[in-house]
Amino acid sequence: DIQMTQSPSSLSASVGDRVTITCRASQSISSYLNWYQQKPGEAPKLLIYAASNLQSGVPSRFSGSGSGTDFTLTISSLQPEDLATYYCQQSYGTSFTFGPGTKVDIK
Amino acid sequence: QVQLVQSGAEVKKPGASVKVSCKASGYTFTNYDIIWVRQAPGQGLEWMGWISDYNANTNYAQRLQGRVTMTTDTSTSTAHMELTSLRSDDTAVYYCARVSHGSGGNNWFDPWGQGTLVTVSS
Fold first, then answer.
1. How crowded is the C-beta side of A22, counted as CA atoms within 13 Å?
2. Which residues 65-104 on chain B approach chain A with CB closer than 8 angstroms?
3. What mean pLDDT comes out for the span A56-79?
4. Considering chain A, what is the average pLDDT of its residues?
5. What backbone phi and psi angles, to 5 degrees, belong to A28?
6. In A1, B12, B83, B93, which residue has its Cα 20 to 30 A from A80's Cα atom?
7. Does the structure show a pLDDT above 90 at A60?
8. DSSP code of residue B63
9. Which strands form A53-54's sheet, in the order they lie side by side?
10. Span A30-54, pLDDT tens digits
């Protein structure tokens, strides 16, 4: 199975800061990479699909990039409502694994 | 709007089985696959498997093979996930989600059900 790693595992940033989360796959997955946001006590929500496509209704401060094995999720200006855990997910092949998550706190 | 509504919380004893349902509305059920994901308390997301709403083909995570069964009932637009021989480490919130397929082969999950807490305890 393809293994996914994320860094950092957690971060604390101030409102207005630029935040970058990295996701790495154990083998090339082309652009078969999606990002989800999970707020405390809620179900996950799709943010980005196919590495760089913003899901409808998601604020434009979220963006994704990358291909192959290395991907990034960027929040251009952190907002209080962005407090959440962010997961990457690969869909290359027949088994779809998630990264371990990155918890984002607001200073 | 597109919505997935799951059945309520369950408490089961070790060795028992549990069946969680996921009722879809707002779209043509047979046009999209369904995946199941679980999340143990304080942990990350674990993909469990998926089922094709078109032909009911399934693909299960290897570590759950033999204990998990996913089915659909197209007459009620409902997907079901049954897990047998429950253990304490099966305690988790179980989610269903609709699968979308990109033209290049990518698959993503949206929307998600609200989650069903399954507690396994003697």
1. 5
2. 95, 97, 100, 102, 104
3. 98
4. 96
5. -65, 135
6. B93
7. yes
8. G
9. A10-13, A102-106, A84-90, A33-38, A45-49, A53-54
10. 999 999 999 999 999 999 999 999 9
Lookup: tokens for A5: 């790693």
Q: Give B46's contacts in chain A (Cβ within 8 Å).
A: 98
Q: Report the residue from A31, A44, A49 with minimal CB separation from B45.
A: A44
Q: Please judge whether A32 and B105 are an interchain contact, meaning their C-beta atoms are less than 8 angstroms apart.
A: yes
Q: Is the pLDDT of residue A93 over 90?
A: no
Residue (of B71, B101, B76) closest to B25 by Cα position:
B76
pLDDT confidence of residue B105:
80
Which residues of B fall within a CB distance of 8 Å from A38?
Answer: 45
Q: Which residues of chain B have pLDDT under 50?
A: none
**pLDDT reported for residue B56:** 84
* Distance of alpha carbon B65 from alpha carbon B52, whole angstroms: 17
State yes or no: cis peptide before B111, omega within 30 of 0.
yes
